[in-house]
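explain this:

___
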Amino acid sequence: MNVLKLFISFLKIGAFSFGGGYAMLPLIRKEIIDVHGWLTTKEFIDILAVVEMTPGPVAINSATFLGYKVAGILGSVAATIAVVLPSIVIILSIAHFLSKVKDSPYITWAFTGIRPVVLGLIASASITVAKDAVIDIKSLILMVILFYLTSFKKLHPILTIVIAGTVGAFIF
């Protein structure tokens, strides 16, 4: 039964998320933690850490790891297929009709309207994860320093992860 619930949950997430994996995180968190209670917030954050370090799209990696955690290999397969299925259907449909609507101002307006929503979803995911991940003053200071180095000093994200893991191993 969990496999079917996983499939339906990730099908909804895939169908109603725009902007990629990070924009999906608030929906994934709500479904996995709030609606179904399959994971705790700590487990979710731990899986996100693995997802972000693993090569590949965040949405697919999230579905794969979370599906496995909830229902094993079958859950992993179901969640992964479900999260990409709406995109595949939409892309095939758009490709079919693209030549007819590509210059339509309505299409341009729709995507212009979606952009701020995507930014809002990504910001929401960042704030939600930060609230759950910042557990004390040390983690807050580490987050602020690494945010500054990544955002303003253009430190490579992989190096940021390595630094965070190394510092975290010593101070926690």
